[in-house]
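Researcher: Please translate sequence to structure tokens.
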Amino acid sequence: MRRALPSNRVAIIMPVDHGLIFNRIEGLETPSAPFAAWASHGVTGFMMTPGQVRQTERFFAQNPHLSRVLTIDTYYDHREMDSKGSHGLITTVEEAVRMGVDAVKMLFPWNMSNAERVVLCTRVGQVVSACDRWDIPLVLEPVIIGAPRSEKVIDEEEKVARIAYDLGAHIIKIAFPGEERTRRLVGELRVPLVIAGGPLAGEPADTIEAVAETIRAGARGVIVGRNIWQREQVAAEKTLAEISSLAKSVSFSD
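Model: Translation complete:
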């Protein structure tokens, strides 16, 4: 757990696993490129696909301070807001352990039929059991796929975070619901919470302020990807430097 979420600072995990859903996305045209480009700019780790893990083994062997979170599932069609999506695993916890990563990550999309929800919860439970068996944490991401960030959606994701907790998630990743909601989730669930930044939006100052609110609310990590690597390089580096300074300003007792 401390590899993924160090106790002496807030973790900054850069997600670069978008190709699983978005295919060839701007900023990730070369899937192995982001690691060397951003590793020296204050990030503590990366959220990756199996292909990226395999292709960058030498790089991470040379940079052992960086953690790796392996995405082990996918979901289609991410743009749909109805019950037509389909979720499944693309690899196993055992394979993740063999690859030497520090945590595994799954989506927990809730805008599907009740029958699909039961199947999804069963799948998550099986992954949690495997993670406990192999002593590797699961990052579970409650999300309403494809929905605009309305108050209703934020309310729903907060409720689904409770289900993620009850299924045994070791770390919960959730889109930023605001400082007060984040503080409530941290206080009530008492499992490490990491906050996702989402798609490129607003000015760099907006991203920095959202991270500051996240940290004040007690989150253990921030997930920043497109708000960094889809920006112009100089602005992105400056933004990440300020986020890193915020992340190093706090520590945790556990």
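Researcher: Any highlights?
Model: The two ends are 10 Å apart (CA to CA).
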